[in-house]
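Dissemination and training. As part of the outreach component of the grant, students in the summer workshop were shown how a complex can be specified as a set of sequence lines and then modelled as a single object. The example used during the hands-on session is reproduced here so that future cohorts can follow it. Participants entered these lines:
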Amino acid sequence: MKEFENKVAVVTGGSAGIGRATALAFAEKGAKVAIASIQAVEGEETVQLIRETGGEAIFIQTDVTKAVEVENFIDQTIAAFGRLDYAFNNAGVMSKMDFVSSYSEEEWDWLMNVNLKGVWLSMKYEIPQMLKQGRGAIVNNASAAGVVGFMNAAIYTASKHGVVGLTKSAALDCAQQGIRVNTVSPGAIETSMLEEAFRNNSQLRREQLVAMHPIGNTGQPTDIAQAVVWLCSDAAAFVTGHNLVVDGGFTVP
Ligand SMILES: NC(=O)c1ccc[n+]([C@@H]2O[C@H](COP(=O)([O-])OP(=O)(O)OC[C@H]3O[C@@H](n4cnc5c(N)ncnc54)[C@H](O)[C@@H]3O)[C@@H](O)[C@H]2O)c1
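and obtained this result:
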């Protein structure tokens, strides 16, 4: 029997990159997976990839900044699969890189709404179901920029530090209720977000970014997926409120 057989996982932002890799990793362990994203075509593709390997999955188009849509996503998950065991709150965006005082108010609101409010809203609707079951594991996706400052990315950095703090407090609130809440903090991972960062910022050079990772390379989405699956597993039964940094040593110096 697979480790996550008869378990149900939700993944926000599961239509691409780290979220898609993690949805596939949950399914590989035997979990049924519900995927939320604003991207419908790519979300359905993730479902198809899971079905091709014999797994079960559904996609619900969801904007994580909208409470009614997140509530609907969790309701649809329970309706389809009957329970909720694991959550990876991963949907996120990055703005163009800019000097701290140059950003607009709209950019602040957009980044904070997706990256921070979206994680809180996801937990708001996930936790009540986990409380009913008396058990659950949540992983929120922060970033190396949730641990250290990042030049020309003040709002993104603030949003990701927020995710780490939100997670710690949620972990304390839930510690005695059987629900563990942790963060994963990736270094630079090869996804469309990273590609876009290079496209939008002529001063950001790939060689420089790679050199900031003592291990000598950037990461792959599966590097994060494996960490998330471990944090959800019983092997991590005594781990809560932790920020698991998976960054090739980026934040070490
Ligand atoms: N790639 C990296 O180098 C890196 C490093 C550290 C942290 N992260 C974090 O990892 C997470 C995933 O990023 P990725 O690199 O896989 O990027 P990606 O752009 O490939 O994936 C982002 C996902 O979030 C979804 N999304 C965006 N806005 C949404 C919204 N309002 N509602 C629902 N879904 C929404 C997208 O549709 C997509 O599925 C993000 O939170 C990001 O900040 C990425």
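The pocket of nicotinamide-adenine-dinucleotide is lined by residues 12-13, 15-19, 36-39, 62-65, 90-93, 114, 141, 143, 186, 188-189, 191-194 (CB under 6 Å). Students were then asked to discuss how this feature might be tested experimentally.
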